[in-house]
Design a protein that fits this description.
By secondary structure, the chain is α+β, with helices and mostly antiparallel strands. Helix content is 31%, strand content 24%. It folds into 2 domains: 93 residues, Nucleic acid-binding proteins (OB fold (Dihydrolipoamide Acetyltransferase, E2P), Beta Barrel), CATH 2.40.50.140; 290 residues, Bira Bifunctional Protein, Domain 2 (BirA Bifunctional Protein, domain 2), CATH 3.30.930.10. Bound molecules: 4-amino-1,4-dioxobutan-2-aminium adenosine-5'-monophosphate (4AD) and magnesium ion. Magnesium ion binds next to strand 14.
């Protein structure tokens, strides 16, 4: 029987041990097993780290016949001693006193020892975390989530949980998933949705951003952040858009656009240095097999001073680049990924902040500049990723905000509470949203957003 009384030790602890240990218990999944005349070798992984631990089970073990049947993917529990390994490539191995088979994996287990394509692994998203690459990606993702909380805790920011169900459209782009408890048959019969009868008595959606709520809390607690899932029903079939993704959104009172950029730059430098230090083995795997330039990319993120230019400068650079873009560049356009990547990847070769966009292409809440034609928006564009951060200084002046909402045909009534914040002790404040998946992509070299989300949701696909 599997040993549940004794405490198991994680393999990453054992591999870093400084001394022999007599009595250890590990549990995990067998990556490979082979037999020689008098013993069986197993490579076992428990997900705590990239490396496996080697286990030697000798022929005199009582259940040796069973042990010889262990297949790749099986779950086992091993009691034994941690001893120095005579073999090459590892310092320690386990000499087994007992091997309990918790559950066999039959021969249809799809992850036999060979390389699999990312496309194939997406079809078995429930099993892919058992591969080296995906195990590493999701350990890095977990470590980054922790690092975000640590960064903000150390700075005295308060973590706010903003609602996932919402009645307001923050970005005004209309890319929202509707939430309703109305019966579709009744809706069909009536020929319309009677929102008065709906669960909340009005239209409701999944949130596209926690910003508006975060602003209310920044104007009370000073510095806050939200970090949670957001949803967009945009029909973008790109490698950088998901329908459900996580966003980090800091919001800072008494902070202008420059403070906002300084904060974003410090954040990315901190997070990059954190994974470099705390996920060294996993990062090395990506540097060897996924992106040969990764080490250089990470060093640039940590050490370079990010460029800062205006939208107008960017238009100028793109127009003078002599490069043929699929989408023509002229003042007033919203940049496409090809433009963003040219600027970050080819022109600056490092992250670049773009500020002061035309107000016509940005949402209502951004602060109108003195020219009355641009707003204090900021996007951070990164090599290989394009936009990783999008944010702004917020419009804190009630009259200007109301004029803007009128111009955009928005209902001031439904935003009464938001406008209230500009009535009672309004102060300059700023914030941004950072796509968490895009961050993971940037730091691992993974090029498809589907491969950094445990169970991705994209147009036409909601498996698992
Ligand atoms: O630029 P966005 O739309 O900004 C906002 O939502 C603001 N309300 C944030 C704020 O100021 N508090 O989104 C922010 C970031 C983008 O820069 C991008 O990294 C990511 O969120 N993002 C997506 N990531 C994955 N899939 C999508 N469909 C994304 N849309 C945006
Ligand atoms: Mg944006």
């Amino acid at each position: 029987m599997e040993n549940l009384a004794m405490k198991r030790t994680k393999i990453n602890k054992l591999l870093n041990s400084e001394f022999l240990i007599d009595n250890v218990l590990i549990k995990g999944w067998v990556r490979t097993r082979r037999s020689s005349k008098t013993f069986s070798f197993m490579e076992i992984n428990d997900g705590s780290c990239l490396k496996n631990i080697q286990v030697i089970a000798e022929i005199d073990l009582e259940n040796y016949k069973e042990i010889e049947k262990i297949t790749t993917g099986s779950a086992v529990s091993v009691k034994g001693s941690l001893v120095e390994s005579p073999g090459k490539g590892q310092k320690w191995e386990i000499h087994a006193d007992e091997v309990d088979i918790i559950n066999f994996a039959d021969e249809t287990f799809p992850l036999q020892k060979k390389r699999h394509s990312d496309e194939f692994l997406r079809t078995i998203a429930h099993l892919r975390p058992r591969t080296n690459k995906y195990g590493a990606a999701f350990r890095i993702r977990a470590e980054l989530a922790f690092a975000i909380h640590k960064f903000y805790r150390d700075k005295g920011f308060k973590y706010i949980n903003t609602p996932i169900l919402t009645g307001s459209d923050c970005e005004g782009a209309g890319e929202m998933f509707r939430v309703t408890s109305l019966n579709p048959a009744v809706v069909a019969e009536q020929g319309k949705m009677n929102f008065k009868e709906d669960f909340f008595g009005q239209e409701a959606n999944l949130t596209v951003s926690g910003q508006l709520s975060a602003e209310m809390f920044a104007l009370a607690l000073g510095d806050v952040y939200t970090f949670g899932p957001t949803f967009r029903a945009e029909n973008s079939h790109t490698s950088r858009h998901a329908a459900e993704f996580w966003m980090l959104e800091p919001e800072m009172a008494f902070c202008d656009l420059k403070g906002n950029m300084d904060h974003g730059e410090e954040l990315i430098k901190y997070l990059t240095a954190h994974v470099k230090k705390n996920c060294a083995d996993d990062i090395e795997l990506f540097a060897r097999f996924v992106d040969k330039n990764l080490t250089k990319v990470l060093d640039t993120l940590i050490n370079s001073k990010y460029a800062r230019i205006t939208y107008a400068d960017a238009v100028d650079i793109l127009q003078k680049s002599g490069k043929k873009f699929e989408n023509r560049v002229e003042y007033g356009i919203d940049f496409n990924s090809e433009h963003e990547r040219f600027l970050a990847e080819e022109y600056f070769k490092k992250p670049v902040f773009l500020i002061n966009y035309p107000k016509t292409i940005k949402p209502f809440y951004m602060r109108v500049n003195d020219d009355n034609s641009t707003v204090a928006a900021v996007d951070l564009l990164a090599p290989r990723i394009g936009e990783i951060i999008g944010g702004s200084q917020r419009e804190e002046r009630l009259d200007v905000l109301e004029t803007r909402m009128d111009e955009m045909g928005m209902s001031k009534q439904s935003y009464w509470w938001y406008l209230d914040s500009r009535r009672f002790g309004s102060v300059p404040h700023s914030g941004f949203g950072m796509g968490f998946e895009r961050l993971v992509m940037m730091l691992t070299g993974i090029t498809n957003i589907r491969d950094v989300i445990p169970f991705p949701r994209t147009p036409g696909s909601i498996d698992f």
